[in-house]
Design a protein that fits this description.
two-stranded antiparallel sheet; alpha/beta; seven-stranded parallel beta sheet; globular
């Protein structure tokens, strides 16, 4: 999200989370936003700040400025880095790019230092590719009980399929991004509304 009016439109739909990308290499970068836009959001919506290989000092500055509750890390952040943030009472979502060669043993070293895993499609863009990965891989390879998000090419046309294929896994949430956009950072309100209805219909 990077447009004040659009942020409020989506917030009115009462999603559980709203994501704000503070990675300058992203077309969805939102560092220009007035801090009061985020500070004044409904308290029931968790604000998630997204970073890629950012310094701890800059993350803490953003957290303080925008009253962030959760960070989503899309770079090569180590378990110790994640744990450092959690010690400061910040929830941590750590993203991992998935393809057929992903080593699921990597996840074990993170499970005590993060709140949630995010499985995203592996790409050079650090997310937002609009491409999905083979969700069946998780049924075959994921053996932890740690709750996770799924992102990467998730939209209204495949949400039911995603939920069906992960029903025996600890899927906690879906990360909806490019498939529901009018342009980078601007969400289609009707598509977001439809996606929320699909998710609620599967609960």
């Amino acid at each position: 999200m990077n447009n004040a009016n659009n942020i409020q439109e989506i917030a009115d739909l009462q999603p559980d989370y709203l994501g704000f990308i503070f990675y300058t290499g992203s077309p969805r970068y939102c560092g220009h936003l007035d801090s009061h836009i985020l500070i004044n959001l409904n308290n029931h919506i968790e604000k998630v700040a997204v970073f890629v290989n950012e310094t701890l000092e800059e993350i803490q500055r953003i957290i303080s400025k925008y009253h962030i509750q959760t960070v989503q890390l899309h770079g090569n952040e180590l378990p110790e880095f994640c744990d450092n943030l959690r010690q400061k009472k910040i929830k941590v979502i750590k993203a991992f790019g998935i393809d057929k060669n992903f080593n699921y043993n990597t996840l074990k070293q993170y499970k005590e230092t993060i709140d949630f895993i995010l499985f995203d499609t592996k790409s050079t863009q650090h997310g937002g590719s609009g491409q999905s990965f083979d969700w069946e891989l998780l049924n075959k390879k994921y053996t932890l009980s740690h709750p996770f998000f799924i992102g990467g090419g998730v939209g209204t046309e495949n949400l039911n399929d995603l939920i069906s294929k992960t029903k025996n896994l600890p899927l906690y949430a879906v990360d909806l991004n490019s498939k529901l956009e009018l342009s980078p950072g601007i969400k289609n309100v009707q598509k977001v509304k439809q996606a929320i209805e699909i998710i609620k219909g599967n609960n």
